[in-house]
# Entry
Amino acid sequence: MLKKIRQWVKRHRATSTSTTALDNMPNPKSPGEQLLSDCRLVVLDLETTGLNASKDEVIAIGAVAITGSGIRLSDQFDLILKRPELDISETVLIHGIGPEALTHGHETEEALRFLLEWMNGDPILAYNSAFDQKFLEKTLKAELGYTRHHTWIDVAELLPTLFPDSPTGGRSLDHWADFFGLEISARHHAASDAMVTAELTLIALKKAQSAKVKTLAQLHDKLRYRRRLTRIHSV
Amino acid sequence: MPETSQLSTRPQNTRAIMVFLQAHAPFSSMDDDHLAHFAEHATLQFFADGEEVLSPSSGVINTFYVVKQGRIRGERVNDKTDSPETTFEISQGECFPVAAIIGERPTRTLHRAVGDTFCLSIDQDAFITLISESEPFRDFCLRGVSSLLDQVNQRIQTGALASMGASTSLSTPLERYTLRAPVSCAPELSVREAVGRMHASNIGSIVITDDNQTPKGIFTLRDLRTLIAQDSCSLDDPVQEVMTKAPYSLPAQEDAFAAAMLMAEHHFGHLCVTDDENRLVGVVSERDLFSLQRVDLVGLARTIGTATDLQTLVSLRTDVSRLVDAMQAHGADSGQVVKIITTLNDVTVRRVLELNIMKRDPGIPFTWLAFGSEGRQEQTLLTDQDNGILFETPDGMTEDEVREVLLPFARTVNDELAECGFTLCRGNIMAGNPKLCLSKREWDDWFIRFIDTSTPQNLVYSSIFLDMRPVFGSTGPVHDLLQKVLDRISNNALFQKMLAGNAFQRKPPLTMFRTFRYVCDGDKRSLDLKRQGLAPFVESVRVFALAHGIENANTLERIDALTKKNVFDTQDAHAWKDAYSLIQAIRMRAHQEMLKRGEELTNYIDPDDLNPLDRRILRESFRQAQRLQQKLEVTYQL
# Structure
């Protein structure tokens, strides 16, 4: 991982450090006729200094990729950003990233460029994705001036859509992980949370296939349909 | 391979997979770098319940899987019934398909997920890198399926060895003990000179050989002691006058266990080792075999065999238990240990009989029979009496008259054996029972009735009386009797089928979902390792053995004999022997632990007390019992 980033940094330092490099970033893909069984999906989780997107900051990014219905460990992203100036006292107990780890983190700009390139414009899945989307887009804009939108899919929405009425006892990531008997190696570690989210996604995708949901567009429609139903019911 | 780096600089998810792998064989013995190589190249896949993971039609295998969560079932279509049957089960931490990826061929078995299942997989390139760079991984893959069982055996032994100090294994060939050239002499040499040679080489025995180096006799320090104490001959007499003639010898290829058993049976301390042409190549002493042991088998057998009263015999029983502990430590597998226990029990039974004959000889030639587990030579520390008498009716006496003389004698023996720790048989299957103290003719009649009228009670008895062995007295009549019984059974298809049906009743303790089926025992969950675990093997194997005229009663030896007769497939036989021996090993370890805690011995264990590896082994062993029963089911169309 570190080696890859170093190589990437070397390559890019030589060309440019300005915003012009952003034009060369991969284009975000919209949900179309990509087959769920072989398209690449990014599953991401952020650790932040708090819950307020307007004042809190991203401190760690963990992500894995699903390709061909499998999670390839060779294709993953696990970084703590270098943000020593941030106050993390509020959340340090939850995610266990202390000031020392943050100073050993990576230059934020480099890390974010690498992330964009690594994500390759592929759809991003996250648990309660609105939260991660807000933080990531804010950070990308502030640090790189990057304003393009990726396709986001909320796994917290995907699971009840495909497994309606499952007696999970709650709607959190932990509830669903417990329901399927999954183990989380280190809860509130971005990469580890991303991993378990991806494992839940694999289960959901398998279910989607047996329900004849084959393409990303079909999945998107199904989620939208459920959202509308929920809205009607809540009214 | 990746450059060597600290575990902590690896991504969290890679680390998590390494930690998972480390909890399972063979990964537990692999280097971190090799585990990292696996984790970094791994793909995690999900399979829904009932989904096909691999099938014979998926082509040449180029992926190697480890179950991360859930289970995989192997299915093969039975040619006879045309329906799929489960051939194996792969649970968390286990790998597949080892043989197919090594052989670069398609798998022969359909692999199907049972429940929500996650598997880690690596492709062929990563697999080849690991095979070529990691020795534990290579050993594991090349040794194949039995290797997991081997590891458990190794662990049982190393665990026990840790407290004993390093030692040699009982399966060591005898030639390893013969590094030192044997000290020998000609028959004409004087006793004085022979002892001089022993003294010069600082050894306890000398072998007397002829011109061809063939052993003719042996002379030991023990013999010298007797010689001087009894003052029976001069030290200048030729050694051949005082040597023990025709000493026992074994070929150099035999193992230490065979030597130990021979010594224990005949109560001597030295054994000649010979080459193919029966020339002396070495001498093995009990000391060589058990150099580090506090209690030794041969010495113990000798002490029991020469005890002068019952109290001594009773007190020696604790030594037997200590010996069993030591034997397990020395790497004896459970099959060997049960034979040792049986051998020592035989010596005890014989000595009790001898002491009683000395006191009050009934004057009637008889053979003492052992039935059940003693008959099968499968006794453990928890054992009760199943015995009988076969007598010859002296001229001028009726059978009932003989019984009048023999029964009081037999009852005394039964009681004394009970004092030695062989519990009285609750079903009164003992020599003191007039129904089991019979002449040869009566036994023959008894078996005819037994086989021809297969009542439910007879079928229950079959597990006892059809495993029969002479322990004391003449063996000829028993052999004749057994031959007739076997002939009768192999010609009686109905009896075989009823036996098979009876054996089929004893189901291994697994539920449909492959979890343990417990016996109700208050609050505690428990498994009966004897009735639920071993009995399905013993009973099924007995049916096949009797149907094919095999006289031997020992379950492992019956399996070997059935394999030789092509009744059992070699690989199946191997798996069944392993499974049976492992259940036995776990049972005996539990006995030793109960003994140490001063508890009464039972055959019940709570699987939760076992470590995860042993639990898995136990489950797999029970599954092998199910397979053996399936064979019974198909053979006898139950």
